[in-house]
Write a structure and sequence with these properties.
By secondary structure, the chain is mainly alpha-helical. The protein contains seven helices and three strands. The protein has a three-stranded antiparallel β-sheet. It starts with a helix and ends with a helix.
Amino acid sequence: CFIRPAEIRLLKVEDIDIADMYIRVPASISKNKKTQVVSIPQSFVKDVIAFDITRLRQDYYLINKSDEPLQHQSLSKQHKTILKRLGFSDRYSLYSWKHTGAYMAVTRGKIGLKDLQMQMRHHSLDQLNEYLREMGVLQSEDIKKMFPAL
């Protein structure tokens, strides 16, 4: 859902709206200090429902399932353990998934840039374009293949 790892760690059960399938990222935990919502994609619906947060107290932290957030490095350590078990290099971080998702959304042409900007909570299309340019996503394959010879 393009939520930053530091924000994920501090999300509470009350921030998840299963009925309308969105996550509210409160200003108190967001990088940009604004309360914003992101959609929960249809492809995650089964996983969200299976997680069954309705049995948890609303004031609990989502990831730790208690009234205490995970320690700062706990999420990263758990992620590295899972990557190792799956045979991935340890050069990947939790934040890498945000990059991977943005790359896949743009290169597969399934999501409009404005929708992606809103989901990623970037303040402008310029900010999103800079983010994508840094990843090399905005290089046009059509320009490379079809540009006329001079």
